[in-house]
Amino acid sequence: MDAKEEQEYENFRMYHTLQYDRIDKLESRREIFNSIVLTASLGVLTFAFPKENQINVFAGTGLTLIVIFANIIAVVFSYKTHDLIKMHQERAKKAREKYAYQLNEINNVVHKPDSSKDLGSRKNLYEYLHVFTIFVIVIVWFSAYCSIDIPVNQEVKKTISKTMLTNPSSTTVISQTITQ
User: How open is the CA angle 38-43-46, to the nearest 5 degrees?
Assistant: First the structure.
């Protein structure tokens, strides 16, 4: 190889590596962001809604809206990173086509499934988790603040109603009745 070809090959190698480094960073950021949002969402579900009397309606509604908004942002972020990853893959493919014919032939021999059409891709699984989290937090919010009855044993309901009528501040008796 002469100096010009060697320089072109080195430029190709650096450019090709750069594209896959960018893909790696985008995937890592997406994974981290999705994990943070899902962990925070589950934390809110776990600690914000343990008992109705521990949090007021406004705080519960505010936390619910924040979790919904964060999960929507995570889904949008996932879509945007997917588009950027596809762009970097296409750039690397074009560079291989122009500067590395043999490498491109090897790459084309193995069929790569299109992740845009794969319903079980990592990106889609995270999106399903975010939508499911939104669905669950809305159900929990409705059940906590909008008086949607969750099926409970009739005797427990009667005891709770009777206790609340005679002594509205007796949450200890109610919690003991439920645990029995």
Answer: 125
From the CB of residue 116, how many other CB atoms can be counted at a distance below 10 Å? 11
For residue 57, give the 3-state DSSP assignment.
helix
| Contact indicator for 137, 68 with CB cutoff of 8 Å | yes
For the segment 113-126, the average pLDDT, to the nearest whole number, is 80
In whole angstroms, give the CA distance from residue 156 to residue 44. Answer: 27
Buried b (16+ CB within 10 A) or exposed e, 35-69: eebbeebeebbeebbeeeeebeeeebeebbeebbe
Q: Answer yes or no: are the C-beta atoms of 84 and 26 closer than 8 Å.
A: yes
88 contacts 23 by C-beta, under 8 angstroms: yes
pTM over 0.85: no
